[in-house]
Every structure is written in C-alpha cells, then in structure tokens.
Amino acid sequence: MVKISDYARMSALEAVQTALHKAKENEQYNALLSLTEDRALRRAQAVDGGEITGRLAGIPFVVKDNFLAYGAPTTAASTLLKEFMAPIQATAVEKLEAEGAICIGKANLDAFAHGGSTENSAYGPAKNSHDTSRVAGGSSGGSAVVTALDIVPFALGTDTGGSIRQPASFNGVVGVKPTYGTVSRYGVVAMASSTDTIGTFATTADDAALVMDIMAGTDERDMTTLPDFFVPTTLDKKLTIGVVKQFMTDDVDADVRQLVRGYIEKAKSDGHTIVEVDLPMIEYSLAMYYIIVPAEISSNLARYDGIRYGTRAEGVKTLAELYGKTRDQGFVTENKRRIMIGSYVLSSGFFDAYYQKAQKARTLLINEFNTLFQTCDVLVGPVSPTPAFKLGENTADPVKMYLADIMTVAPSLAGVPAISVPAGVTEGGLPVGVQLIGQQKSDALLLAFAKSLEEDN
Q1: Can you say how many angstroms the Cα of residue 183 is from the centroid of all Cα atoms in its chain?
Q2: Sign of the C-alpha dihedral computed for residues 425, 139, 19 and 10 taken in this order
Q3: Residue 163 falls in the annotated catalytic set
C-alpha cells in the first residue's frame, strides 16, 4: 500500500496528477463525490515553485465531504447541501494545507454522517475496496476506500460512534478516532457534539501519527479542544493488554475472532502481558448511544430550514410549509429517523426516563473504563462483529444496522482514543480490523504499539 513517503519522492505536480488519475480510474467504487482538481493542480505548482513548504509538501489527500473545504461543494452527501460552496475551511484542513498537503477531492459518506455503511448517501453507496458487492462501511466509507485503493496515502474522516474505525476495518487500513477534543471540529458539519471527533485513515501507524500530530491542538473557535498533547513516540516498554471478554463471545464471527486472537498472540510473543478484563456496562452502550446521539442530532439539524443556506423547497406559500417541505425533501430516511428519536427522548414527558438515564449510565461506563486503565495500558477486541456485509443486507432492518456499531460506541461515549489496525483477511478475502482502546490522551501510545507490531510482520 502507498505511504506518504512514496508520494514524497515525486514532484508535487506528479503526485497530484497520479492521485487524480487513480481517482478517475476507480470511479466504479463511488468513493468520491467530487474532485478539487483545479485548485489541487495550482497548489502543486506552488509547492514545486517553493511558494508552499512543510512536512506534507505536495502530498495529496482526501477529506470526507462533511469538512468545509475549498474547490468543490460541501454536500455532507445530502441534497440539502448539494450546491453549498464553503466560505471557510475546516481547521483540520487549514492545518494540513499549512504544512503543504493538497486536497484532491471530497469523499462519499452516509448523509450527514448518519449510518454505518455509506448506503444512506443521497448519491449512492461507496463500495468496498476488496469486494464491490459489499459495503465500504460508514459513515466515513469513501475516505477508507480511497486510502485502501492507494489513491491517496491518507484521508480525513469523522468518528462519532465508529465511523472511522469500522470502515477502516472493512477496507484493511489504519483508522484513528482520537481522544475527544484532540482535533478542532470547527468547519465540520456537526452530528453529535459530545462524541464527534476528527481523525484520519492511513496505510501505516506512522503516517497516521504524522497527520494527527499536525491536526492536534487548541482552536479558539472550538472550545472543546484540548491543549496539544499529541507527541509521536516509539514504544520503549512492554504493555499490559486487556482483552475485553464481552468482545470475544460466540456472537462474533468465527473468522473475526480467529484473526483478533492471532493479533493478540503476536503481541504476547512480543513480550506484552495479556489479561482478560470485564466491561459489563458495554452491554448497555448501544442503548445509551442511540438515545444520546439522536438527541444531539435533532438539535444540530434544526439549522437546516431552507432559509439561511442550502436548498429550499419550491412552490411553498407559508413559513411552516417551507420548513416542512424543505426538511422532508432534503433529509434521507435515516436522518428523519434519528431526528424523531432525538426529539422524542428530549421531550418533556420522556427526558428523565430516557435521556437523563442514558447520561447517568454513560458516567458508569466511563468509570468502568477508568478502573480498567488502572491496570491495563491498552484494551483490545474486534472493531466489528463481522467483516463487511453485502450491500442491501441490513438496509431494511435499522436495528440490525445499529448492532454493527456494538463494539465501537463505548469508547466514543467515554471520550477515549481508539484505533482500528489491520489484523488480516478472512478465508473469503475480506479484511478484519483489531480495535485498540487507550485511556484519554494515550493516542500516541496506541499508534506506537500498532507500529511495533507492524514492524514485526
């Protein structure tokens, strides 16, 4: 797989032209919604002319299309924003461009990032890089696919409950969900404000660490950001690895369990201590997530009313009709489902029974994580109970689709870092990822651990 260093050997113009050529060659995957070709080529010429320098000078990358970025519309894969040209750029994009990186396109996703397969995109699903009859994962499916296809050496995504880790697992690349607040969310379309994080896909842990190092840090425009703590490191000690027993039950696909056990054995042969740990609140994490997150979604999506920006319904005669028809026409089914659930659990009659109870349970989950991290450096388990499923397999059953998130939502609710790293492929040739979970601000340690096992392959 292509790395940042591979593109760094080329001139910026050659690197960008190569990435654009690969993007056009692989249109059948529907991984990209648009290309920022003109702007990318101009920036490449500026890099080659010495006007732009930095650690990523001339390196092409892709952003998920819920990042505000110049050169193409920011659609969030929704018809509501199909012609929206961003007046600003996301902080994460600005930081990467300040180091010379060149955005070449906007990646497909589930509309407004609501989904786990990219099948909720208004522009059709992205397709898995290893099997086009299967899902790319979601919601950051397009970003995972362009990385796996070697179109670019890294791509940006958002992770609210597994939206980077699950598609990374399904496509066999590294996916990083950092500690909550590591990277500014300014200029990124909001989903759920208390769990949204900005992360990256890459083909190696080293490349992911470099990108995270550049993006991390305080932003006065996002008051949830943390002072920069991310310092890439190398592993200089043996770790205690906790295998979460709830993640390794018979409900998990046998091939997935086998590959995850193989990764754990590799860590053991490297000298790390392996222990089994118990995380009982994990049983309730999906229920918590699908109360808390829709509540925040219903609030964040209230701004899409057809008045301030975005498309609006035509032929309406009253303000109420404008609101209603614009939102009915613009939101896909999954958007509407989450808005309705969120509005319900926040309503005066059900706030205490659902939302407040879920937040209290969330505190118990956080406490369980904190207790485990007193004795363990890293927790490990699968990213998803199955490899990539077939396109259309779960679309008629939203509960079945939500269950695909069962192993990724808990770290999101706790605000701790978690990464997906490739564990191998099944007998059918489908990638499987291992999820590494650490305590808050241990992001660099997780990537250093992942790198140490990469080097042993």
Answers
A1: 13
A2: negative
A3: yes
Q: Position 241: which residue type?
A: I
As a whole number of angstroms, the distance between CA 27 and CA 22 comes to: 9
The CB-side HSE value for 183 (13 A sphere, CA atoms) comes to 30
CA separation for the pair 406, 390 (Å, rounded): 18
Q: Comparing C-alpha atoms, which of 420, 456, 434 is closest to residue 174?
A: 420
**Residues 328, 332: Cα–Cα separation, whole Å:** 8
CA distance 296 to 61: 30
3-class secondary-structure state, position 123: coil
Residue 294 amino acid letter: P
User: What distance lies between CA 74 and its chain's CA centroid?
Assistant: 17
Q: What angle do CA 131, 158, 91 make, to 5 degrees?
A: 135
Return the structure tokens found at 266: 């590799």
Q: What radius of gyration, in Å, describes the C-alpha atoms of the chain?
A: 21
| Closest alpha carbon to 257 in 424, 457, 100, 141 | 424
Which 8-state DSSP code applies to residue 389?
Answer: P
Catalytic residue, candidates 139, 143, 384, 442:
139
292 closest CA partner among 236, 351, 223: 351
The single-letter code of the amino acid at 361 is A
- What does each C-alpha distance from 344 to 161, 292, 297, 347 come to in angstroms? 21, 11, 12, 5
- In the residue annotation, 64 being an active-site residue is answered as yes
76 torsion bin: left (phi>0), alpha (psi -120 to 50), beta (else): left
At residue 233, what is the residue type? T
Specify burial of residue 224 (Cβ count, 10 A radius: 0-12, 13-18, 19+): middle
Distance CA 137, CA 312 (A): 30
User: Once rounded to an integer, what is the mean pLDDT over residues 318-333?
Assistant: 95
What are the phi and psi torsion angles at 6 (to 5°)? Answer: -65, -45
Contact 205, 447 (CB under 8 A): yes
pLDDT in tens, 197-229: 999 999 999 999 999 999 999 999 999 999 999
Q: Which of 78, 163, 169, 412 is catalytic?
A: 163
pLDDT value of position 403:
84
456 pLDDT band, cuts 50/70/90, is low
- CB-based contacts of 269: which residues, under 8 Å, 6+ apart? none
The backbone torsions φ and ψ at residue 410, rounded to the nearest 5 degrees and listed phi first, read: -60, -50
Mean residue pLDDT across the chain: 96
Q: Please give the model's pTM, rounded to 2 decimal places.
A: 0.97
Tell me what the mean pLDDT of segment 279-292 comes to.
96
Two tokens, residue 113: 């990032």
CA nearest to 4, candidates 116, 100, 140: 100
Amino acid at 337: R
